[in-house]
Amino acid sequence: MSASNDGTGFGFSPPGESRKAIKELIEWLQGENEALKAELALAKELLEAWRDAVNIPRTNCSCHISAPCNDCYEWASLRETAEHTDRLLGVKP
Ligand SMILES: [Zn+2]
Question: pTM higher than 0.85, yes or no?
Answer without folding.
Answer: no
